[in-house]
Amino acid sequence: MIELFYSNRTEQLLDALAGKVKGQRAAAHPLEPVELVVPNRNMETWVRLGLAQKLGVAANMNFRRLEQFIGDIVDKSCPGAYKVAGLDIIEAAILAILLDQETVSSPDMEPVNRYLESAGAAAGNLAGSDQAHSGADKLLLRDGADMRRVQLAVRMAYLFQEYSFSRSEMISSWRGNGPAYDQHPFADPSKFDRALASTVAWQRALWRAVFAAGGILEKNPPPEGGRWITLDQLIDKKELINKIRTAELPPVHIFGVSYVARLFQDLFALLGENHPLFIYTLNPCAEFWEDVETERAYYKRLDQEMNRREKRVWAGTGETGCEDPFGLFKADNPALRYWGHPGREHVRLLGELTDCDFTDKFIEPAGKGLLQELQKDILYREPEETGNISETEPHEPDESIKLVAAPSVRREVEWVADEIWKLMANDRSDPPLRFSDIAVIINSAGRDTYLPQVETVFASCHNLSSSVSDLPGIAGSRIIEAMSLLLKLPFGRFSRAEMLALMSHPAVIARFDDITPGDMAALAEALGIIFGAGRADFEGTYIDQDVYNWDQGIRRLALGAFMTGEKSGEERIFKADQGKWLVEEVYGSSRPAAARFGLLARSLLADARFVRDSKMTLTDWARFYTVQIDTYLYSEEGTDERDRLRLLRALAKLEAMDLGQEVSGRVAAEIAGRAIEALGSGRGQYLAEGVVVSSFLPMRAIPFKVVFLLGLGEGLFPAAGRRDALDLRAARRRAGDVDPAERDRYMFLETLLCARERLYLSYVKRDEQTGDPLQPSAVVQELLHILKQGYLDQGGMKAIR
Q: Any residues with CB less than 8 A from the CB of 365 and at least 6 apart, and which?
């Protein structure tokens, strides 16, 4: 049984969820958990806090993501028989194939082999012939092939999973040894771009090497027993379907998912046959809007229905001499037409599950401001006004929608901070405005530029309280940041800057109380250390003496512990079989610092050489990195220790991906680095400690009284809709497919709907390097067009800027 709830307000959906949870708990055992599926951590926090306010307590609730939820159902329905292969195991399997030179050398995989050889084998030829490159340079070039293997494995794991979600027919053809390409996913094979033929062929060959009978996943079953299965196989396996239908599963609540692939719609239908399934979805429009056309489709239809002359007349005046008894030329609601495509298809697919039977939770926006009027017109699917606004009664401009063009990123953020303080000072509402009622949402493309500015400006602006989510994994944690430097060290040039950045890092130097960062920098300068681990790094270059590198510097320091040097007036050069060096004399209080410096540097260099030269299983690499954490990094009680445990959990990904194959240190470091980056980070407690700051994606469909949307410059938002050369889905679009541009446009629509009182939009109006003028994003210009056509006259348009 599937029960579907629609609303234009997330709060109304939460009320419906709270009512269902309350009724479920009244009829169930007190210890039975409530199963909830949410799209991200931010939504999970918002739902948890909301249920606690409405029910008095929000305990014993099991929050999961959609893929994890389906995997858990398979585990519960067929214990020990099947296990869903997640991204990590698919990535590991693809990587194992790419590391198998025999498989990669097959004819179908020739493009992949060329791609890898262009970074690997070419570097090997360079090492033997080009004397202008040092040993470190040659090693760096050799590592290129391993880096490409990891990057390609990550990308193809994502695509193969997406194919299983939305191109099950193509996957079935590949699994059954069918043709590499047919009518799926291509509409007309005769028009199929032959330039894609080799891409389809090698992807099919790679897919079969991983998933087909006799593939690597079959040879490496789950540790718990059984066999790996992909989500698309759930629909095809009758045995598995019957077990899911007859399994005893608790009611499941799916909340706040904006759109999903067609496969999940089919799985919802399967689960809803015999189990309670409740779906709570934000729907922008209370009216039937599944026939709303996109902008491109709308103008294509105009081209077909109107001759060119009349189209020009219509575009200029809004009038046409041609009769239009059926409203063929009447523009639909522009916001839905510009930005609503993914949501429209999601609503249509959900409607198919329930035969359009849903519970209506729509509510008219409160207030008379421009923002509320725009939301109301979206709710009731009011068409676009194409006449002259001066002939109708225009709306009065207000502060509910405002566009700001700033001269720089810093000034943009400073304006936000000033505006927040003004709002708080002038607030007379009941209940009063709180900092946590305000969201500052940053375009994801500008996250790394904006977030440091936000934190700096907010701190300097009367210490404006804020919580920041969606930070990169290394941000805000000295333990994780130091581990990231440790992973990168073996594959750099061992320059003074690289080594000292790690050696003097607070998480490393905190272990020592007898040396400071200044001492380390002074020693490196005195020892003449520039770059290179040892003399071998200078082979093939014009530097033929043992100078500038770390080995010679540490050796000079060690000799100075028991020999005299320049400080005592001794200028003789010490000679040995390995070479000759000037002694760097150390004595007195400087000896402990010099000893720490030499020991730490020597240990780091030895570990780096081991990483560069060794091959081990991923499990062994995980143990090695764990030892490095305990050896080099100092963690205090509290935040440091929590971050250390998070770091260890991230490194556990290496063990989860271990298929028994030995890999190089470069491969292990790339996987570990990606796992650390994926950790995510934040500062402050979300929705509880001040203004909520986040990037666009995790803020989806969460309501706030005031929303600031930053970084909406031309070309920055929405994401470019470029065709991905590796993604076969781009050859023919299907219902449920969402490209990056459509994703961003729908997020903009959701953000507009979730702003309760004010929506502020901002962008940088000049290039900070050249001074050239910049325009706002396409979505901002579309919003301005909507306001100009149907809401404001020219004076009002100027007022909102």
A: 8, 372, 375, 376, 379
CATH of domain 2-83+231-282: 3.40.50.10930
Q: Which long-range contacts (CB under 8 A, 24 or more apart) does 177-180 make?
A: 177/208, 177/212, 180/204
Residue 574 to residue 579: CA distance in whole angstroms? 8
Q: Mind listing the pLDDT tens digit for each residue in 607-631?
A: 999 999 999 999 999 999 999 999 9
Q: What DSSP element (H or E) covers 25?
A: helix 10-27
**Max mean pLDDT range (301-310, 331-340, 390-399):** 331-340
Q: In the structure encoding, which two tokens stand for residue 427, read together? A: 């607030």
Amino acid in the structure at residue 653: K
CA 30 to chain centre: 37
Is 709 in contact with 760 (CB distance < 8 Å)?
yes
Q: How far apart are CA 186 and CA 191, in angstroms?
A: 9
Question: Residue 221: is the preceding peptide bond cis (ω within 30°)?
Answer: no
Q: What is the pLDDT of residues 95-139, one digit of tens each?
A: 999 999 888 989 989 999 999 888 754 444 444 444 444 444 555
> 401-473+684-777+796-800 — its CATH code?
3.40.50.300
Q: Strand pairing partners for 764?
A: 406
DSSP 728-787: GGGGS--TT---HHHHHHHHHHHHHHHEEEEEEEEEE-B-TTT--B-PBPHHHHHHHHHH
Those residues with Cβ within 8 angstroms of residue 114's Cβ, 6 or more apart along the chain or in another chain: none
**Any idea which fold 478-676 has?**
PCRA; domain 4 (1.10.486)
C-alpha distance from residue 671 to each of 95, 470, 593, 657, 678 (Å): 11, 21, 35, 9, 11
Q: Which two tokens stand for residue 382?
A: 């009011």
Alpha helix stretches (DSSP H) within 262-333: 262-272, 295-305, 308-317
Structural domain boundaries in the chain: 2-83+231-282, 86-229, 401-473+684-777+796-800, 478-676
User: Which run of H or of E encompasses 402?
Assistant: strand 401-406
Q: In angstroms, how far is the first alpha carbon of the chain from the final one?
A: 50
